Amino acid sequence: MGLSTVTMIYAGMFYIAALVLVVGLVYKIVDYSRTPVPLKIPTTPAPTTRSGVIYRMAKEVVVFESLFKANKWIWVFGWLFHFGLLLVLARHLRYFTEPVWFWVGIVQPFGKYASIMMVIGMAGLLARRFLVDRVRYISTPSDYLMLVLLIAIGLSGMLMTFVVHTDIVALKAFFLGLMYLDVQPLPQDLTLLVHLALVALLMVIFPISKLLHAPGLFFSPTRNQVDNPREHRHIAAWAARLDQKN
Amino acid sequence: MAAAEFDIPKLKDDIEIPKLREGVMAHAKTFPAAKAVQDFMGYPHELGEDWKERAIDKMGELLGKYRSMKVFLDACVHCGACTDKCHYYLGTSDPKNMPVARQDLMRQVYRRYFTTAGKLFPKLVGAKDLTKDILNDWYSYYYQCSECRRCSVFCPYGIDTAEITMAGREILNHVGMGQKYSNEILSKVHKIGNNLGLPGPALEDTLEGLEEDIEADTGVAVKLPLDVKGVEVLLVTPSADFFSEPHVESLIGYAKVFHAAGISWTLSTHASEAGNFGLFNGNYESMRKVAMRIRDAALELGVKRIVVGECGHAWRVAYSFWNTLTGIGYGGDDPFSIEMQKQLDPTYPQPQHICELTNDLIKSGKIKVDPSLNDDLVVTFHDSCNVARASRMGTEPGGQFIIPRELIKSVVNNFHDMADETIGESTFCCGGGGGLLTDDLMEVRVKGAMPRATALNNVVKEHQVNFMAMICAICKAQFTKVLPKYGFNMSMVGGVHQLVSKAIKLD
């Protein structure tokens, strides 16, 4: 039995999307790490030790500390969205692992309902773009579309979880097949095809859009630098060359 | 020179977030630098045929040199967290004074010329070709940012608009649109040694006059030594301390501290300026050149310690950058920095803030003070932005908030802080920092001071505060000028060492 055209298109689409995502992100991360940081510019008060910086970054990544200081509405919606997304992604790991990892089994029920958190969070963020004059002013078309895309991914996924189930066993076979270069047929219901196409689009957009805030945070000098300029001489290679002219 | 008339904001009980009023500050244009100044600084003085290429090339060069700029231009998600954090937005309601919008003035161009998405779908991601209109927006709004970093505290990715403003100004410089105020000051410090263009003999006269004043006032011969070799401390202080009011009162305070503690010290004509306007323009070489005067003076005079007077951005440069730029600090393993560092006394922090020094002396009992001599005052403390968010004092994070307050409380009996969300890391800029302390930007300065004036007004009403202490020359100059427009007396403004000066016991 040959594979259908739709299966072949989706298989190709995911190979390309994965390639763009990985190559794009690796390129960006290498570029960030190779760009010098000539000066010490942590936003102070800042930690004076490396372990302090790890703690500071962990608070930013896990509980969005700075955003919490800034605005409770954005924080609530943003955190619901991101934490929901994390649980949802963790739940999805079962479609890519055989046998399914122990902890992935545990998060299944949470991941199911986390999708609601995620969509509520994004709806709140989208509403702010329309309702708050300051946020409306700074929003570009891509800011709205990005949220619409993510909400559509969330809703189409929820539709399959709660209303019209797809053939999940066949879907898992399809993705494991992609991973082992042995393409298997993809179930062809409309909701699934829409969900997957939007996910592939998101993967392609990731490395060329504001979604770079994810790796960007780790390279942000105001957050990741140790506050010890009097104790340690910090110097970039291009700046050190100036010292030799003296 | 007459500036256009403008409304002075009414102070309310709270700092309110205004509704947007688009374009209301587009007219604010700082005076451009003239040909002679631009020539001296190595910049063109007018837009040439190739201005656009020059601008884009410079942007590319800076993107390659500064990771901050690259990451900050990529990472913003337009969440809006910073939109109500800038004092200039709060005071003017012009949306381009929202930090993210200020960054977007550059981000739109960055996206168009340096990103795939912006090259392919400019409209979708808000990318725009660089035009003269955009360049004019940069000139307006990059000189309505005091680089105070308040927005960077609240950004979930730590995006610091100051970095973008600095880069914007540097690009403007390279296409021939420099600012008169900053570039004239930089040329003065390069030629003469200080921002005010005060030559050596004038400085000597001023210091002698001050010595006479102090002796007449106290009966004690407190000295203000200049260019003395082999002493322990080189004091580097903003040149405003030499003759501006109320700055000079703090200079007198430092002199009394050194006298009372028996520490030998000197000022330097070559390094008669702690301020470093190179910081404001995002030009590393220019900032380094200004800072090198201090290294050169320290080596020449053979001092063992370098202490910095009350100046906010100077302390940022000294604390955060001197080690990098000049080797003043510790931990260098290259000949350039070892030459400097082997001369310095390792039992003290290098450089040291005058507040660190004085506070240690009082706590250890080496100098005596009588706080009741300040009983006529009810004091509050204005955290200066560069000290608060770009430096430290002492050994612990946040020492820059604790040490000046400890010091103030040891020399005054009545102290009340302003509201929490307006001090510490959330402090509001005076409105005149970052190269904006010029009369041609008076409207920006007055309106930008609204949040601080509101917080001050509340402690005045609640606690009868009648003195706002601070440790920054720009803050002092700005507040004495703009607070009277809000109905405050300019004598409310003064330095922390002005309070020390009154309370210290000589002999």
Automatic annotation (TrEMBL), chain B:
Pfam families: CCG, Fer4_8
InterPro entries: 4Fe4S_Fe-S-bd (IPR017896), 4Fe4S_Fe_S_CS (IPR017900), Cys_rich_dom (IPR004017), Helical_ferredxn (IPR009051)
Organism listed in the record: Thiobacillus denitrificans
Annotated signal peptide: none
Keyword Phosphoprotein: no
GO MF annotations, alphabetized: 4 iron, 4 sulfur cluster binding; metal ion binding; oxidoreductase activity
Keyword Ion transport: no
Record key words, sorted: 4Fe-4S, Electron transport, Iron, Iron-sulfur, Metal-binding, Transport
Name listed for the protein in its UniProt record: Reductase
Domain 4Fe-4S ferredoxin-type: 67-96
